[in-house]
Design brief:
- The chain is mainly beta and 123 residues long.
- The protein is built from no helices and eleven strands.
- The model has no long low-confidence stretch (mean pLDDT 96).
Amino acid sequence: QVELMESGGGLVQPGGSLRLSCVASGSIFSINDMNWYRQAQGKERELVARITSGHSTDYAESVKGRFTISRDNARNTVYLQMNSLNTEDTAVYYCNVDLVFVRRGKNYDMDYWGKGTLVTVSS
């Protein structure tokens, strides 16, 4: 059994900052890509940032220069530092992880999603 637990969402004023965290727990053998997605009300879910196992990163154009994704492999944790937030960043943010877990001596590669954490940017 593998679980993802996100934290760090909340209400922030425009121009402010938040840091999201996502911890993967369970019988994890290894973790590949770790991603943050977001979904604003009435819109489709979109990829915000990706970090590979080798720490290569990729960002949506709308967040480049403002958001930073990082990971701590020892803690199975991915972070999203969000600066200079604006109202268009308001959304539910989801952690997504591609990992290999162990069950009864066998390895399985699967994609997991967290339940999401709400970020609201408002004055």
